[in-house]
Amino acid sequence: MPMFSIIVPCYNAAATISQTFESLRAQTFADWEAICIDDGSTDGTVDRVLDVAKGDARIRIGHNVGKGPSHARNFGALIATGEVFAFCDADDIWLPNKLAELAETFADPDIDGAYGQIGFFQQVPSDASVYSTVPDGDLTIEALLGENPVCTMSNMALRRAVFERTGGFDATMVHNEDLEWLIRLVGAGSRIVGLSALQTMYRTSLGG
Questions:
Q1: 92-137: per-residue pLDDT in tens?
Q2: What is the C-alpha separation between 182 and 168, in angstroms, rounded?
């Protein structure tokens, strides 16, 4: 059983998903599996994932045709085997030390989940000039309803048991389903901490 299960929902992400998986394979902490849940891609996304998986047994793919990203994340959680779920969208990029920093954080049994700082880019990560703010203290509903320092699910990691207690994402929601889930998570008393380290690069695009 790996420490981390990385859940990657994808749909027509052939242009970016190879770069995303390159960033996962570049992690300095190697005890992970990655599960790509494809939502019915028609652009070669599945072939890209299968090509990467040929060289790395930690990567596998599942199919969740036409049900949306929330259902894909829930489905990924059902077939994941790791102790901690870490989510990553198919057009974002992780910095190499992300999982190592998270592993150190989750060594504290009182911590249920964690997120870090995000850099926002368009073409390549080095273009980033805007970065998220990580407030001091545990994540609150007030912070989520304001700036929302988590920003994206690519920036979120959570213990398996805690995710299961939330019941997963509301697959009936079309917008802000991640924020609704985070509010339920924090409202139920889960302790989510912010890390001051830059961990995730978020691709800003109209289709992202």
A1: 999 999 999 999 999 999 999 999 999 999 888 888 999 999 999 9
A2: 10
